[in-house]
Amino acid sequence: MDELRALGFRTVPVTAVGEHTISGFNPNQLSEALQLGIKVAVRDPEETLPLLGRVLDAVQRAVRQMPDEGLDWTAPDRDRPMREFAYHIFLMVRNTIRALSTGATPEGADTEARSYSSFQQIAEFGGTVIDDFKGWSANPDLDALRAPIADGAEGRNGAERLDLVAGHSVQHMRQLYFVLEEFGVTVEDRLPDSELPPEYVLTILW
After folding, report:
1. Single pTM value for the model
2. Most C-beta atoms within 10 A of its C-beta, which of 33, 90, 106, 148?
3. For the residues of the chain, what is the DSSP string, one character each?
4. Could you tell me the maximum CA-CA distance found in the chain, to the nearest angstrom?
5. Chain segment 111-139, per-residue pLDDT in tens
């Protein structure tokens, strides 16, 4: 942690290659730093936006099926209870679309979920995020989302950020399905892996 802070970061993953540091999983920056000569194509927003909309709907359906006695259940080696985990999925999308809309990263933490006393309430919060997302994605500025970031700028462009949050949402959706089955709940109306990009459908790691 001290080393991470010394590099100027407070979140993981961070990759250090010599004096070059890379925040998060950014295949193109990693390839450049390691001189691999590999260019990873970013999914176009025209494909990512409808996919993310379907995933958000599926996450909300899964959250509605969670039994409330599991609100404070935690996975092995993790302190985050399920109420914060479920809230986190919607929060990441909300923060991403607000950042893309305004250029500023909004405030918000998973711990806000502690005020929720049922998964139904979390699903209703998810409904507000879905409404915001659908309103924003109905007429997005695709050229702006596709525009490359300025030379020397840190971070990702809009298309990359959408691709990242879509993959993040898919992985957590699949974890929700796994937990529901662990709770003895037969998942209804699940979004099958066959309808998801293959690079999103990886072995589940909690």
Report:
1. 0.80
2. 90
3. -HHHHHTT-SSS-EEEETTEEEES--HHHHHHHTT----PPPPPHHHHHHHHHHHHHHHHHHHHHS-GGGTT-B-TT---BHHHHHHHHHHHHHHHHHHHHHSSPPP--GGGGGG--SHHHHHHHHHHHHHHHHHHHTS--HHHHHSPPPTT--S--HHHHHHHHHHHHHHHHHHHHHHHHHTTPPPPS---GGGS-TTT------
4. 51
5. 899 999 999 999 999 999 999 999 999 99
Domain range summary for the chain, segments of one domain joined by +: 2-33, 45-195
DSSP lists the bridge partners of residue 16 as 21
Q: What residue type is 15 in one-letter code? A: T
Q: Residue 152: what pLDDT?
A: 47
Radius of gyration of the chain (CA): 18
Tokens of 192: 């099958």
